[in-house]
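To illustrate the input format used throughout this study, we show a single complete record. The first block contains the structure-token representation of the backbone; no residue identities are included at this stage. The design step must infer an amino acid for every position from geometry alone.
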């Protein structure tokens, strides 16, 4: 099961990497999505290996993916939904800020609550196009349903819900978000 989740996450990350690869004019949002996809791709590559030498690296990349890359992707989604076009330098600082938030949450032992808030933020960010445009966008409704299911899953914490499944689902939901889709396609 872990191999399947890892392959799915790697595929979603590879798609995000390809769509946001460096170009002649590389917007800051694309660079931020590229960095987040690179972090999750590295985690997807290391996750299925049971070697004890890799345990620390696996944990570090898992937590970076959940508590830095995912919030960065959500921040990009929120900024693009509101029409902000920030530079790569600003997005680098945003990533650094999310790393600081992660470390503070880790030291205070509130990582589970942080993940719940991230998933809830994903739901709210998905609803932004509906609130801004004041019209029904069916892909946003579909995406919102997916976020609601993910919110319920993270709150109930079933044994089968691994970080690989959470990240894969979140990446795919961010990708099918109507506001994001307009920004990532070339």
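Output of the design step:
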């Amino acid at each position: 099961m872990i191999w399947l989740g890892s392959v799915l996450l790697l595929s979603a990350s590879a798609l995000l990497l390809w769509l946001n690869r460096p170009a002649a004019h590389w917007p800051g949002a694309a660079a931020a999505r590229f960095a987040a996809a690179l972090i999750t791709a590295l985690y997807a590559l290391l996750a299925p290996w049971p070697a004890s030498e890799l345990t620390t690296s696996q944990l570090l990349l898992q937590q970076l993916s959940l508590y830095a890359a995912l919030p960065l992707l959500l921040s990009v989604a929120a900024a693009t939904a509101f029409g902000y076009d920030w530079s790569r330098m600003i997005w680098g600082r945003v990533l650094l800020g999310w790393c600081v938030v992660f470390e503070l949450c880790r030291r205070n032992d509130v990582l589970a609550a942080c993940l719940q808030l991230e998933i809830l933020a994903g739901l709210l960010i998905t609803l932004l196009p509906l609130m801004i445009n004041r019209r029904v966008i069916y892909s946003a409704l579909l995406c919102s349903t997916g976020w609601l299911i993910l919110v319920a899953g993270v709150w109930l914490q079933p044994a089968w819900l691994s970080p690989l499944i959470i990240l894969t689902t979140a990446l795919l939901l961010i990708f099918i978000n109507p506001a994001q889709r307009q920004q990532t396609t070339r």
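Structural context for interpreting the output: Residues 2-184 form one domain. The chain has a mean pLDDT of 86.
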